[in-house]
Every structure is written in C-alpha cells, then in structure tokens.
Sequence to fold (117 residues):
Amino acid sequence: MLETVKSMYQFLKDVANDERIPQRDKTILLGLLALLISPFDIIPDWIPILGQLDDIVILALIADYFFNKLDDEVLLAHWPWGMKRFIALKKYARMIAWITPDKLKDKVWSYRASPYT
Fold:
C-alpha cells in the first residue's frame, strides 16, 4: 500500500512538471485534487446520493482529462504501472466520462492534443 502511494505521488509530481501540459490545466487539476481530498464538499455528504455526487463528478473530470484528453504519450512517459493497468483505467475513464458535459470539459481544459496522433 505504501509503495502504491509513493508511486502515485511520484507520478503526479512528474506529470505536474511536464512542460507539454499547460500551466492552467495543472492549476485546475491541483484544485480538483484538493477538493476531492478536502473534508469540505460542494454538496454536504450527509445529503443522500447528492452528497457523493460532487466527488464522483470531480473524479470523473480528473480521469477524463488524464485518459481521454491528454495524448497517451504524455501520460505514458510518466506511467509507473504496467500497460495492462493503463488500458483498464482508460476503459473505465471512457465509461465515466459521460458524467461531465463536453461543454464543461471544453471550458475547463486548455490542453489540445497533437493533430498527428
């Protein structure tokens, strides 16, 4: 477990230092991660179903950015786990991407994928 946390920390640190990712996106990702980890929520957790919905939408937005918005080469340059895990997480990210509207994603992220991939 500790090794996984260390790997995750190193992965996030390496991605945060990647020059191919716009600074604006890095700032938004940091804010979303802080919201996800924070004990304070947009919708309080004591409200049934809706209380967990804000965390799910934030997690979906983060996963969608990493696995559907970024080029695979950017992510794989820092990916510490195997390709099998990468493909599985990318599949799950596609499945939950429908939670966040495309208009919201387009307004939030400034990263534009390479037209050559």
The first helix runs from residue 2 to 16. The chain has six helices and no strands. The mean pLDDT is 87.
